[in-house]
Amino acid sequence: MTTQRRHNYWAVRHFAALCVLFAHSFELSGKLPMGLLRAFPLLVGISGLGVTLFFIVSGYLVTQSWQRHRSATVFAWHRLLRILPGLWACIAFAVLLGWALGSLPTAAYWTHPQLREYVLGNVLLRNVLVLPGVFNGNPAGPGATGTLWTLPLEMTCYLWVLLLGVSGLLRRSSPATTVVLGALVAVTLWGGALNLFGAAIIANWLPRYYAAFLCGMLLALWRERVFTGWLLPGMLLLAASWLTWHWPAEQSLWRWLDLLRVAMLAWFVLNVVAAVSRIWPEPSGWPDLSYGIYLFGFPIQQALVSWRPEWNGWMVFGASTLLSLLAAVLSWYAIEARALRLKDALDRPGPRVAPMKA
Predict the structure, then answer these.
(1) What DSSP string runs through 17-86?
(2) pLDDT (0 to 100) of residue 270
(3) Is 224 in a helix, a strand, or coil?
(4) Cα separation of 209 and 191, whole Å?
(5) Helix-strand-coil percent breakdown of the chain, rounded to 5?
(6) pLDDT digits (tens, 9 = 90+) for 26-63
(7) Environment class of residue 146 by beta-carbon count within 10 Å: exposed (0-12), middle (13-18) or buried (19+)?
(8) Which residues of 188-223 are buried (b: 16+ CB within 10 A; e: fewer)?
(9) Where are the domains of the chain?
(10) Span of the secretion signal (predicted)?
(11) What is the pLDDT of residue 224?
(12) How far apart are CA 201 and CA 105, in angstroms?
């Protein structure tokens, strides 16, 4: 049984999606100061914790995906099938929601150039937020799909794995580790300028999430040795969080403390998952609704805030959780799961995942 099948990353992904949904409920409703959520002690905001967990797990599992198949075509095909169908469904959902709730007449909405910019821009992973005449009065602004900004980052990280895999570096742990550590230093110093798709994103967010993916990769490379129990990484995570919390963010050392904090979070999470999985292994055959919750939650929450501006964050969270789960179920069974069945179209038997050579 492989590490991926044994460990319950299903639970981590859904917890991460709910973190994002919870934080956005308060941010989008405008009923609590955003500084309250940003004061979360582990990372910048509860939403930031959720996104960081997504990137850690992605780096860990996607690296193993390459090692199983070792085919650039199969790897790219699998990644596109996981990302694009759900993205396209979310774009279509947001466009229809905007048509139903927006202030423009039907003809003006469907012929507006901003609508074409929205659809084409998001298909190209450029994170275009605004639909014409939609959510203009919302407290957090008119953005319709504010979570799509992570997808160009995710695709950039997939390209890293693909390049390392094609180069042969992922066959041996020592050279791969050297490259990944160098990449961690590079993204910590210059990651804010790395935006391959030209997406509309805030640069100071980027290094942390690139680093989270790279930390997941690093732990995948040494997965036979990193499962040491959660106590030591937990204590180191608390120490790194305390240092980061008390160190002035404007000083250059802070970014290295933040990198340490992300690395310790990754190590801690993998060990917690290993411990939990002894009691509750990865469910077999359960739908993975985390991606759908993450994508559809934002437009649903914006719609709720527009419809019921008097609602507080807790009300928005309760209603949006139910509606996002429903949207995610429909997306999974109607689109995502069907698309993932096409994986076998290019699959060929690959080598078993074995301990890497040093």
Answers:
(1) HHHHHHHHHHHHHT-S-HHHHHT-SSSSSHHHHHHHHHHHHHHHHHHHHHHHH--HHHHHHHHHHHHHHH
(2) 94
(3) coil
(4) 9
(5) 70, 0, 30
(6) 889 987 655 555 555 444 578 889 999 999 999 999 99
(7) buried
(8) beebbeebebebbbeeebbbbbbbbbbbbbbbbbeb
(9) 3-344
(10) none
(11) 86
(12) 30
Nearest of 49, 43, 42, 40 to residue 19 by alpha carbon: 49
Report CA 120 to chain centroid distance, whole Å: 22
* C-alpha span between 80 and 155 (Å, rounded): 9
Question: The tokens of 177 are what?
Answer: 């580790």
- Residue 6 pLDDT: 62
Closest CA relative to residue 199, chosen from 124, 117, 146, 104: 124
**How many residues does this entry show for the chain?**
358
DSSP, collapsed to helix, strand or coil, labels residue 309 as coil
Sign of CA dihedral 161, 167, 171, 176: negative
- Among positive and negative, which fits the CA dihedral 144, 150, 154, 155? positive
| Predicted TM-score (pTM) above 0.85 | yes
Q: Cα-atom radius of gyration of the chain, to the nearest Å?
A: 20
> What token pair was written down for 179?
């490259």
The whole-number pLDDT of residue 59 equals 97
